[in-house]
Each structure stands twice: as C-alpha cells, then as structure tokens.
Amino acid sequence: xxxxxxxxxxxxxxxxxxxxxxxxxxxxxxxxxxxxxxxxxxxxxxxxxxxxxxxxxxxxxxxxxxxxxxxxxxxxxxxxxxxxxxxxxxxxxxxxxxxxxxxxxxxxxxxxxxxxxxxxxxxxxxxxxxxxxxxxxxxxxxxxxxxxxxxxxxxxxxxxxxxxxxxxxxxxxxxxxxxxxxxxxxxxxxxxxxxxxxxxxxxxxxx
Length: 207
What we know:
Layout lengths: L1 H17 L4 E7 L6 E2 L2 E2 L1 E2 L10 E6 L5 E13 L2 E3 L8 E4 L6 E5 L6 E7 L6 E7 L4 E6 L5 E7 L9 E5 L7 E8 L3 H20 L1
Parallel strand pairs: 6-7
Antiparallel strand pairs: 1-13, 2-3, 4-15, 5-6, 6-8, 6-9, 8-15, 9-14, 10-13, 10-15, 11-12, 11-14
C-alpha cells in the first residue's frame, strides 16, 4: 500500500513538472504585507537583534540560512535611524547609502516566495526597479515614508527556486530594503502544493 502511494505521489510530481514554471512578480503598493504570496504561507523575518548603524552583508532567515547582500548595507530601524517607512512598520531597514544605488539579495536555498519593501530618502516619488534571477521584473514608485511592497514567487511549487533579486534606485543614488517575508516549503508541503497546482491547471484547461 505504501509503495503504491509513493508511486502515485511520484507520478503526480513528474506530471506537475511538465507544467510551465515561472516566477511571478507582485507589485503590492504601500500597505502592510498580506499573509500569503501566491499559494505560499509567508513567514516574516523577526527583529534583527544586531547593533544598529552597523554595516552588514546578510540578514538571518527565520527558516534557516540568510538573505545575503552583494554590497554592505547599514542596519537601521524605522523610527530610529530611518524615520518613517510607512503603514506603521517599526522594524529593520537596510540602507545602501554610501554603497551605491543597487543591491543583489541572494536568497536561502529552496526559496519559493520572497517579499520585501524598498524605499529611498527623497521627498518625492521616484522609480525603484526589482528583477529576479529569471528576468521577471517590477517597477514601483516610492519615497521617504512610503516604502513599496515587492513580491516574487514560483508559480509551480516544483519549479526552480528563486535564487536572487536585484533592487535598484538610480534616481536617488541609493536604495533601502527591509520588512522581509519568505517561504521555503518542505518536501511534503511542496508535493501538496504541486497537486493543488496541477488540479488548478487541469480545471483551467477544461474551461
């Protein structure tokens, strides 16, 4: 019985892999982050207990590993070192001021969904770009006190994970990122999500 079940699950996984997989970008505006991104339950990053004002090259993930930075970013906090971020957020902010106008965030192994907010220190709206490793890109306007939500997720849970996201704001000469959330489903959760995705795909084809 167990062997038949394992074969059935394996068959579903193989079929699901045949479905087209791509990274989806979500430009979420300026409100608080929703609890899900695509089919994934998101886990927000906890407060970073490292000293403020220090320059750091990564942020520990609540699901293991770390989100790395391609350039050192200064660890600040909304309301203390950064001022207003927006929608009542009072957590960590990582600023590239002095390190350039862009940063590549390397994501922990197995990341299927990741969101973050991005802002700058200008008092008027300018464009911030974000692009994932497969070329999926988003552009949103942001300014001091109005950080914008950027979300990326793998629409096929059995597709390739997201490896990195580049964020840039040339008009400001710097960019700040923070308020991270992540999803790294285990093998069992991925199988269940794969079955759900396959069922949704079949229903769409029938319609």
